[in-house]
Structure formats: C-alpha cells, structure tokens
Specification:
The chain is α/β, with parallel strands linked by helices and 233 residues long. 41% of the residues lie in helices and 19% in strands. The chain has helices at 15-28, 54-62, 68-71, 82-89, 95-106, 130-137, 151-164, 184-197, 213-218, 220-226; strands spanning 2-8, 33-36, 39-41, 74-76, 111-115, 123-125, 128-129, 141-145, 169-175, 201-205. The longest helix has 14 residues, at 15-28.
Length: 233
C-alpha cells in the first residue's frame, strides 16, 4: 500500500497545508489519492467548513468524494488533545474504528495520505498516542517542521520519538509559514537536520499566502520543484 502518515513537530506547524500540497502533487502524477484526518479537535461537527476543518479542506483540495465520517471518524469541539477533548465531550476514541475506516479508504485508492493531530506523543487515550496510531496504520512517516530557530530541537526530538516507536521515516518537509527571504540561520536548518539525524529532507514547502484550492494549484509548479526528493528511495 502506497502512502504516508504526515505528522508534525508540534501543533500549527502546517501539516494540513503540506498534506494538501502532496495530494495535488501525487494526483498530478496520475495517482488515485485518498486523504484521511482520523481525529480533529476544535471543530464543531454541526457547524464546520473548509475554513476551520482540516478534514473538509483536505477533501476539497484532493477532490475526495468519500464520506466525511470515513475521512474523519472523530471530530471534537473542544480545542485540546484528542484524549482531553474526548474526555470533556464524553466521547471515547476507539483506535479500532479509525483503522476500520482506513481500510475502507484503502480499498478505493492506491495512495493514502493520513494527517495526524499535533505531534507524535499527543495522547489519544491514556495509553495510546499518535505514534501508536501511526505504527498501526503502517505507512512511512513524513515529518513537517519549521525553518525558524528552535526547529532543530523540535525536529530531532520528533525523529528520536519516531525511531523509539519503530516508525519508518520517509523524511522531513520544512514548511515556510512566512514570506520573504530566509536568513543565514534558516538556510542551514535542513542541512543540519540531515547531518544530525541522517534523515532526508524531502523539500521546503513554499509559503502559500492564499491557503485555498486555487492558491495551492497556482503554486503547484513551485511545489513540484520543492518536493522532488519525495520520489527518492
């Protein structure tokens, strides 16, 4: 089964934007791409849109016609970790339900992009975290990181956690969330991550000011150039 589990060094690093970019990139390569956001929090299931729901945004960008409950089995209103949000809502999360929905999606698509929530150690239940879910899903890991100062610590911690859990790492994608030129420190981040961790940098996602289907499509040429290492071994 082809596909990737996309995680991040922390919340708000840009996993959804990178996942959306990858979905268009693989579609442009002629692949049948399915997307999944197993859990999202901070979203009211009764009142959500592509503007506040990662799952709906990924579905729109990828052109998904799968059912929302398949793409995102758990949607919780409280903006917190899945475990805390589910405790407050009184809605326990069952990892088996996520895996069942994933199997349905895998039967329809030859490429799956599964976006995690937060970082690898974010709790889903008391003794089950995002890394455990990624291990059960079994897809290679793509780590989304920043170019800003502090990213070395966050990225190396994430890489170490992934290895401790037995996860196979495809590589790291640096995500530019600000415009302008990179300074001398930021330019070195990718090289240092590779040097210090023996982990491949798959590319640097360009800053996309208009985070929409159209905005990503307009930047597809830059994305293809930036993510050329995604097809490496």
């Amino acid at each position: 089964m082809n596909g990737f589990f996309i995680t991040g060094t922390d919340t708000g690093v840009g996993k959804t934007v990178v996942t959306a970019c990858l979905s268009l990139l693989f579609k442009n390569q002629g692949m049948d791409v399915g997307v999944m956001k197993p859990i999202e929090t901070g979203v009211d299931p009764k009142c959500s849109s592509t503007a506040n729901s990662d799952a709906k945004f990924l579905m729109k960008v990828s052109g998904s016609t799968d059912a929302e409950e398949e793409v995102c089995p758990y949607r919780l209103k409280i903006p917190a970790s899945p475990y805390q949000a589910s405790e407050i809502a009184g809605t326990p999360i069952q990892p088996a339900t996520i895996l069942e929905q994933l199997k349905i999606l895998q039967s329809r698509h030859n490429m799956m992009l599964v976006e995690g929530i937060g970082g690898l150690l974010v709790p889903i239940t008391t003794r089950y975290n995002v890394a455990d879910l990624a291990l059960e899903i079994g897809l290679p890991l793509i780590i989304v990181s920043r170019t800003l100062v502090g990213t070395l610590n966050h990225t190396l911690l994430t890489i170490n956690a992934a290895r401790e859990h037995g996860l196979k790492i495809k590589g790291v994608i640096l995500n530019r969330q600000e415009g302008g030129d990179l300074d001398e420190v930021e330019k070195q981040q990718g090289k240092l991550i590779e040097e210090l961790s023996d982990t491949l940098i798959l590319g640097t996602c360009p800053n996309i000011e208009d985070v929409s289907v159209e905005g990503i499509q307009q930047n597809l040429g830059k994305i293809e150039h930036a993510f050329q290492n995604i097809f490496s071994i």
